[in-house]
Amino acid sequence: EPEVTQTPSHQVTQMGQEVILRCVPISNHLYFYWYRQILGQKVEFLVSFYNNEISEKSEIFDDQFSVERPDGSNFTLKIRSTKLEDSAMYFCASSPTVNNSPLHFGNGTRLTVT
Amino acid sequence: RKEVEQDPGPFNVPEGATVAFNCTYSNSASQSFFWYRQDCRKEPKLLMSVYSSGNEDGRFTAQLNRASQYISLLIRDSKLSDSATYLCVVNVGNYGGSQGNLIFGKGTKLSVKP
């Protein structure tokens, strides 16, 4: 079964540094998403992306965040200047359509900001 | 105001037991509904979609009551492998057709004991 893959599995960075989290969505999927989950908290929507542009973003997704699909397979989340509170599990997801189709999540990148 | 509310549990049940989880959602415009399961420090995985008429998948039965904004999940003949956190998930489906903005509950923890 095709999977969404994310790298790295764990990223440790110092406060103020830039990080890029990488994702390879399922190949025939057209819609891509980033979610995050702070330890012990609920999963929260960050951003959705379709046709090379952001289609929706949450209040969490401020100017420090950006997404990009640099080529035909990768989908990245960049955090420009990390803060301690950015420490969380970041999940990438993809879906073939938006019509009530469930999302397929990657296994996540654990970001630790020190 | 919590958008998707669940009893956090934990529910500790013996193997073979029947267990039910409930969930309420606040946005009456919610369009689609799901149950996901999440194992410790892993990604959410779709368990089942929830349809207005109710639906069953093996030992799992989901019900939706739109008037009461209430969703339920029933697990029959529980197995040790059912131990996980069960996430109630709602899709409001707003903005430009993007329906990937899933609203997650915090989850109900289930522990099935031998």
Attribute tags:
heterodimer; A: 114 residues; mainly beta; seven-stranded mixed beta sheet; four-stranded antiparallel beta sheet; B: 114 residues; six-stranded mixed beta sheet; five-stranded antiparallel beta sheet; globular
Verbal overview:
The complex is a heterodimer of chains A (114) and B (114). Chain A is mainly β and 114 residues long. Chain A contains no helices and eleven strands. In chain A, a hairpin with a 5-residue loop joins strand 4 (31-37) and strand 5. Chain A is globular, with a radius of gyration of 13 Å. By secondary structure, chain B is mostly beta strands. Chain B has no helices and eleven strands. Chain B has strands at 4-6, 11-14, 19-25, 32-38, 45-50, 55-57, 60-65, 70-75, 84-91, 102-104, 108-113. In chain B, strands 2, 4, 5, 9, 10 and 11 form a six-stranded mixed sheet that branches. A five-stranded antiparallel sheet of chain B has the order 1-3-8-7-6, with no helix packed on it. The radius of gyration of chain B is 14 Å and the shape is globular. The N and C termini of chain B lie far apart (38 Å). Classes of the chains: A mainly beta (114), B mainly beta (114). Chains A and B meet through strand 4, strand 5, strand 9 and strand 10 of A and strand 4, strand 5 and strand 10 of B.
